[in-house]
UniProtKB/TrEMBL annotation:
Any one annotated GO CC term: plasma membrane
Gene3D superfamilies membership: P-loop containing nucleotide triphosphate hydrolases
Keyword annotations of the record: ATP-binding, Nucleotide-binding, Transport
Top-level taxonomic group: Bacteria
Segments forming domain ABC transporter: 17-255
Protein name per its UniProtKB record: Putative ABC transport system ATP-binding protein
Any GO molecular function: ATP binding
Pfam families according to UniProt: ABC_tran
Annotated signal sequence range: none
Length: 256
């Protein structure tokens, strides 16, 4: 379907996403934005990607999600129909993969201000071939689940930042995507609204989705299962609650 590959993981759970030796050198740039990144993301994990500005977080997210093609290295996504070599897909294949198998919650750019909340969510489903009436029916249920009853017909541009992020979270999930990518989902929100949006994202994880979230916010990272830190395009730390020996927040001191 998307160019399936055969891949076995010796022992343990099969990652939903596996990156090997990822490098990314933007045209005209002397230094790599990613420099040999290996990363396995397990199904049901919430993984925060942190690091200083320019460390490569967004580039990594975009390469993992098939928005950008890496200069070298491999990204393998395990879908319901088998493993997919994301790095080998052409532009059309990556677009299709994003539409059908992945969900995105970005700070801006994916939602259309002139469409209603309902239309913004329904369109993601319509792009996978579902008729408009059915897509709008499902979109209304998602908006209800995300606390937006009564705002379905309001233009996105007339919603608050927190409400718009709820629309984005509905849109990310309506296709049934098991893997969600978020880039600074709370970055433009006050701390209370940001915490509510994070609750919704982690609620999706509790229901079996997997989340990779780029964030500068230590409060967000502390509530994720695992924190990966980038520096100069390399993974320099990778913490998990399991490493810390329990179910507490990510390892103390990691975020300082
Ligand atoms: N389209 C591009 N063309 C050229 N260089 C780029 C491009 N996008 C990012 N870069 C460079 O790649 C490096 C990593 O950028 P990236 O945006 O991935 O970092 P980041 O950690 O997400 O930063 P921030 O926290 O500021 O968003 C930086 O040096 C940046 O200038």
């Amino acid at each position: 379907m998307w160019g399936a590959v055969s891949r076995c993981q010796p022992g343990g759970m099969t990652p939903i996403l596996a990156a090997r030796g990822l490098t990314m050198v933007y045209p005209g740039s002397a230094t790599p934005a990613l420099d040999g990144v290996d990363l396995d993301v397990l199904p049901g994990e919430s993984v925060a990607v942190m690091g200083a500005s320019g460390s490569g977080k967004t580039t990594l997210l975009h390469v993992l999600a098939g928005i950008l093609r890496p200069t070298s290295g491999a990204v393998t996504l395990t879908t319901a129909s088998g493993p997919v070599a994301v790095h080998e897909l052409d532009d059309a294949g990556r677009s299709r993969l994003r539409r059908e198998a992945l969900g995105f919650v970005f700070q801006q750019g994916l939602l259309l201000d002139e469409l209603s909340a309902l239309e913004n969510v329904a369109v993601a489903r319509m792009l996978t071939g579902v008729p408009r009436a059915q897509a709008e029916f499902e979109a209304a249920r998602w908006l209800e689940a995300l606390g937006l009853v009564g705002l379905e017909r309001r233009r996105l541009g007339a919603l608050s930042g927190g409400q718009a992020q709820r629309v984005a979270i509905a849109r990310a999930q309506i296709t049934g995507a098991r893997l969600l990518f978020a880039d600074e989902p709370t970055g433009a929100l006050d701390s209370r609204t940001g915490a509510e949006v994070l609750d919704l994202l982690l609620g999706a994880v509790a229901q079996g989705r997997t989340l990779v979230v780029v964030t500068h916010d230590g409060q967000v990272a502390a509530r994720c299962d695992r924190v990966v830190e980038l520096r100069d395009g390399r993974v320099v730390a990778d913490s998990s609650r399991a490493d810390a020996g329990g179910t507490g927040p990510a390892r103390q001191g990691f975020l300082s």
